[in-house]
Amino acid sequence: MEGSLRLTKEFSFEMAHALVGYDGACREIHGHSYRLFVTVEGAPCADSSHPKFGMAVDFGDLKRAVSEAVVSRYDHSFMIRRTAESEEIIEVLGRHFSKIYAVDWQPTCENLVHHFADLIRPHLPKGIRLAAIKLHETATSYVELIF
């Protein structure tokens, strides 16, 4: 076998957010059932004595990497941009809940795919490259980041 292969694994998790300063309904706290598609690229193992012979990446290894980097961290969490306006709500929620993420950027779907890519890359097996991430915020709306 020659050439590079692209493999995609789908993940799902629940997360809430609010868009501070936004001029529409999404400025309110609301949640999504996110669907995350992670596509990686690599050459299949050519060593016939290796247990991963013929695989570019073991789907179990990919599942473990993305689950550790993103899914287990953000499932059933709340994310909000840290501003002077949001400091009080961040403080109050933080006293009552453990998975509150105050970030320096607006937690839009567009920004989330960049953030998730940065988190996933260090967890990927050697020789595997992140090729794309697609994040569905709703059943009909998604952002795709292609490298």
Summarize the structure.
This protein has helices at 59-74, 87-96, 109-120; strands at 5-18, 30-42, 77-81, 100-103, 129-138, 141-146. By secondary structure, the protein is α/β, with parallel strands linked by helices. The model has no long low-confidence stretch (mean pLDDT 96).
Strand order within the widest beta sheet: 4-3-1-2-5-6
Strand content: 35-45%
Overall 3D shape:
elongated
Poorly predicted runs of 5 or more residues: none
Annotation, overall tally of beta strands: 6
* Sheet of most strands: 6 strands, mixed
Helix content: 25-40%
Helix and strand element order: EEHEHEHEE
Task: Please supply descriptive tags for the structure shown above.
single chain; 147 residues; alpha/beta; 6-stranded mixed beta sheet; 3 helices
Notes on the structure:
This protein is α/β, with parallel strands linked by helices. The protein has 3 helices and 6 strands. Strands 4-3-1-2-5-6 form a 6-stranded mixed sheet, sandwiched between helices. Helix 2 (87-96) links the parallel strand 3 and strand 4 (100-103). The radius of gyration is 18 Å and the shape is elongated. The mean pLDDT is 96.
Write the layout of secondary structure elements.
Layout: E1 5-18, E2 30-42, H1 59-74, E3 77-81, H2 87-96, E4 100-103, H3 109-120, E5 129-138, E6 141-146
Parallel strand pairs: 1-3, 3-4
Antiparallel strand pairs: 1-2, 2-5, 5-6
